[in-house]
Specification:
3% of the residues lie in helices and 32% in strands. With 191 residues, it is mainly beta. The protein binds calcium ion.
Length: 191
């Protein structure tokens, strides 16, 4: 997140909802066409979610068991959470390629099964590295040598503030250096 990007803060404060803030929450992913039986982004309340709710400061690609299931490449999209619907099984590996465009970076995510929160970015299950290891999104890949993700702000803390689509247990995670590490790779296994 670029410190100079004040426009989005104005949007967050509701000061410019009709003045070019761009799409509000999730509108930009409603065009995603989900084939029957596959995942797609949609607007849901957290209580009915079956899948992954995520956003990244600034951009991401989201993989489950090595397959790309979602992405947001809008550098202004960090405060717009996406929901990627799919049934999350125990043992599924979630992998996030996260890209920051300057300033601080962060990933926040919750995983639901049948509407129940089963994993958040407040969990010690997450690991993050700055190296793109071969096969790193695969469920067969072992990340045991990766550092644990560093929990930065809990949902509600600065500089991102409270994001209503995420649980109170969620933190913004990254590597140890959220200023200078601008491309990071994070993984977690669903319990
Ligand atoms: Ca987003």
């Amino acid at each position: 997140m670029k410190v100079s990007s004040m426009k989005k803060w104005a949007c967050l404060l509701g000061a410019a909802l009709t003045a070019g803030c761009g799409p509000m929450e999730d509108e930009h992913v409603q065009d995603v066409q989900a084939e029957p039986g596959t995942s797609g982004a949609s607007v849901q309340s957290a209580s009915t979610v079956d899948g992954i709710v995520i956003t990244v400061d600034n951009r991401y690609q989201l993989y489950v068991n090595g397959a790309l299931v979602g992405q947001d490449n809008d550098p202004m999209g960090w405060y717009q959470a996406e929901t990627w619907n799919r049934f999350m099984r125990s043992g599924d590996v979630i992998a996030v390629l996260a890209m920051d465009d300057g300033g601080v970076g962060g990933i926040i995510a919750d995983v639901y099964r049948g509407g129940a929160l089963v994993l958040s970015t407040g969990s010690p299950r997450w690991r993050c590295t700055t190296t793109a290891y071969s096969g790193w999104t695969s469920s067969a890949y072992s990340d045991l040598h990766w550092p644990a993700a560093v929990l930065h702000s809990q949902n509600g803390g600065g500089p991102w503030g409270y994001q209503s689509r995420f649980s109170a247990a969620s933190h913004w995670i990254w590597t140890s250096d959220l200023n200078n590490h601008n491309t990071v790779y994070c993984r977690a296994t669903v319990p």
